[in-house]
Amino acid sequence: MFVGRIPLYDVGQQDGVAFLVMEHLEGETLADRLTRGALPLDDALEIAIEIADALTTAHRHGIVHRDLKPGNVMLTKGGAKLLDFGLAKAAGGAGAAAGLSMLPTTPPGLTAQGTILGTFQYMAPEQLEGHEADARTDIFAFGTIVYEMITGKKAFEGKSQASLIAAILDREPPSMATMQPLTPRSLDRMIKICLAKEPDDRWQTARDLMRELKSVSDSSRPSAQPAGVAQARRRTWIMASALTGLLVAVSVPALLYFRSPAPLARSIRFEIPAAGSPFLMAISPDGRQLAYVAPATGSSGANVLWIRPLNSLDARMLAGTEGAQAPDWSPDGRFIVFGGPDGKLKTVDVAGGRPQTLTEINSGSYRRSTWSRDGVIIFASAPVLRRVSASGGAAADVSELDRSLGELLHSTPWFLPDGHHFLYTAWSSNPEHRALYVGSLESKARTRLMTVEGKAVYVPSGFVLFLRDRTLMARPFNADLLQFAGDAVPLAEEVAYNPQLGQSAFDVSEEGTLIFRRGGPQATATRQWIWMDRTGKSTGPIGAPHDATQVTLAPDGKRVAFSTGFTGSDIWIDDFDRDLRTRLTADPAVDVFPVWAPDGARLVFASNRGNSGLAMSLYEKPSDGAVPERLLVKAEPGQIVLPFDWSRDGRLILAQKLDQGQTSRSELWVLPLSGDQKPFPYLATPFWEGQPALSPNGRWLAYVSNESGSSQVIVQPFPNPSGGKWQISTKGGQFPRWKRDGRELYYLNPASQIVAVSVSAGDQFDVGKSTPLFPTPLAYPAGASASILYDVTADGQRFLLSAPVGPTPAATGNSAPITVVVNWQAALGARERR
């Protein structure tokens, strides 16, 4: 208990002034120690952990210090002790107003009553602006103290009070690692979060911070050190000034905090084996059934929906759900709503029956849905959220992008209890503007809640669950006032997360059952280059890890160009001979889909620079970066143009064109690089066609189409598609690539195998033998996809793959189990009592 650690010798009143008599301390203040310069890393971490421990105890009892600084930390033989709670306040509002935090409370000689000198440099922006202080205000001050201990410099400085205020409000301090190169990166990042200008962007509890500090401390110790040393932390004793009457008002209520809380029901945790993507799963509102996407049984191997009752050992496949994306439940648990590979939003009765179509979606960027008890479904179909009746019909937008914030799309909606307001995530090219908002069916006005990394969900017991640094957090939320009601606490660690798409592998039911799937450190984000020959023999990882989403080999096979994700991404080039990585583009916009010119001297890529939202134009740039990029094709509003191939004679670029208003289809276009350079359509049908790859002689075009109901590789004559059509894949296929002599065509099948097909692609076209070459560590996409993660050398003997770090899907079956936590709030209560 907080007050159980305070050596309290007497309590009384003298001349109308309440007082406490406490321990006399011997030692020096941290401020005195800092006059001699920075502390050794181990000492600084030990003191930081002790201060964080003290803050954890104080905050748990509703007390905010509000004047945390080196002068209020005493270094003694027994450890660091946090002093002077004279300006402390109860979280509920007891005590002085937040603005009084500007008053000095340091020992004599540092400040005088009524001035602000001496405390200023450790104040949070909200204190300087006169706003209410809370636990996160202390966390900001804590960050400035640790910064000063590590670097020997104050985080914020100025020649005057005005310039100091400006520094705190507007400037970021230099990285600690720039002044102390041995500073762990994790510690540098941790303190940067402490010093965020907005309270919502900081660590939300001192306990989370203490846990992270301990992890940094343990990892920074020599490996030969006995394990017991890491456990020998000195505990912090929270001390108070004996003559501060305000402490009585704050501390005396804490003396009554010795009551034992009522016992809670137990939390039960178990695991269920499951294949498939960790992000494509949902639990029913009553917590009794799981829905997830995994490969079908039988020969097709296509991804389908599965239903698994928690009281059963068997899962049941739902017929007709091939290629399903992002399943979600109806409020009564009778139906599943999901995205189909044909660009349709569909529902299926869990008891059986064929899926029913509701409306159109953008199948390439469908991100979950939410279903209200009033029969309204909101779904994310880039770039905005749309609504449709649960009985089907025309869809209408319910959100709009804020271009000034660099927003790219809105995703993962979640209805609040009133059925009119909903949570959703705005995804931006600027990480600072990736935020959680409250929207409304009545208007497109919205309220920002906090910065987030992905989806956030609400549970009726009054919590919002979200992911922070792959730790699942729960934060109290008042759904009536539409605002947070407390700090976030951790629930589970190492939860799978895809930073490129903001996907988080967790879900929660209304009645209190939580599900999540774990992923290894950055397993969903970090990839590595590997070469594989036609027998599947691998060279092992080469080059540095990366986050590539589109891969294209240079004609000489010695360089690879790739883009990093789809939000705030750039084009990079890896030179394998020189073991060198260089950045080709550095614009804040989205730069994706690089394609090499036949001579290897130039690249074309897609970018939304100068456009609204996801509208993508084509740009060209020399591969050595010697001159700036130039615009080739300007996209129309709402139009996405993605390059895929460059003809061997250098005269044409083959592209895929999508319109956001026609989300279930895409077209194949040709861009001439001579003459009037006016793009023209090669193939425009009611279906989805994409990923064009032109044969070396320029006579035949391979592409992917969903005309048959699933993605298949097709070949037609070029430049006129009339005159024949050949289906190359048999059970599904994506990402066609040609051998340089035109005698083989390659693609990825649903079993994640590279397939080689013998072809004759001269004056006539013939299809020969189809041979699966080897299994790959690449995941076959659930629907139409344009993220090509492999390429082949000119002779067809070696394949370059952008493979995920860790075991391959072929070896694991994407088999990270689903962890189920029944009554997860009981575990939360137990954590709080500890």
Outline the structure in words:
- The chain is mainly beta.
- It has three domains: 3-255, Transferase(Phosphotransferase), domain 1, CATH 1.10.510.10; 268-523 and 816-833, TolB, C-terminal domain (Neuraminidase); 527-812, TolB, C-terminal domain (Neuraminidase, 6 Propeller), CATH 2.120.10.
- 14% of the residues lie in helices and 37% in strands.
- Strands 26, 27, 28, 29 and 30 form a five-stranded antiparallel beta sheet that branches. A four-stranded mixed beta sheet has the order 3-5-6-8.
- The radius of gyration is 30 Å and the shape is globular.
- The model is unreliable at 1-6, 91-118, 222-264, 520-525, 806-814 and 830-834 (pLDDT under 50).
What's the SSE blueprint?
Elements: E1 8-14, E2 17-22, E3 28-29, H1 30-34, H2 41-60, E4 63-64, E5 73-76, E6 79-82, E7 89-90, H3 125-128, H4 135-151, H5 161-170, H6 176-179, H7 185-194, H8 206-220, H9 227-230, E8 237-238, H10 245-255, E9 268-272, E10 281-283, E11 289-295, E12 303-309, E13 316-317, E14 325-329, E15 335-339, E16 344-349, E17 356-360, E18 366-371, E19 376-381, E20 384-389, E21 396-397, E22 407-415, E23 421-428, E24 435-440, E25 447-451, E26 456-459, E27 463-468, E28 471-478, E29 483-484, E30 489-492, E31 497-498, E32 503-504, E33 506-508, E34 513-517, E35 527-533, E36 538-546, E37 548-553, E38 559-564, E39 571-575, E40 580-583, E41 591-596, E42 602-607, E43 617-622, E44 630-633, E45 639-646, E46 652-659, E47 667-672, E48 680-683, E49 689-694, E50 700-705, E51 712-717, E52 726-727, E53 734-738, E54 744-748, E55 753-761, E56 765-775, E57 790-792, E58 798-804, H11 809-812, E59 818-822, H12 824-833
Parallel strand pairs: 6-8
Antiparallel strand pairs: 1-2, 3-5, 4-7, 5-6, 9-59, 10-11, 11-12, 12-13, 14-15, 15-16, 16-17, 18-19, 19-20, 20-21, 22-23, 23-24, 24-25, 26-27, 27-28, 28-29, 28-30, 31-32, 33-34, 34-59, 35-36, 35-58, 37-38, 38-39, 39-40, 41-42, 42-43, 43-44, 45-46, 46-47, 47-48, 49-50, 50-51, 51-52, 53-54, 54-55, ...
Helix pairs in contact: 2-4, 2-8, 4-7
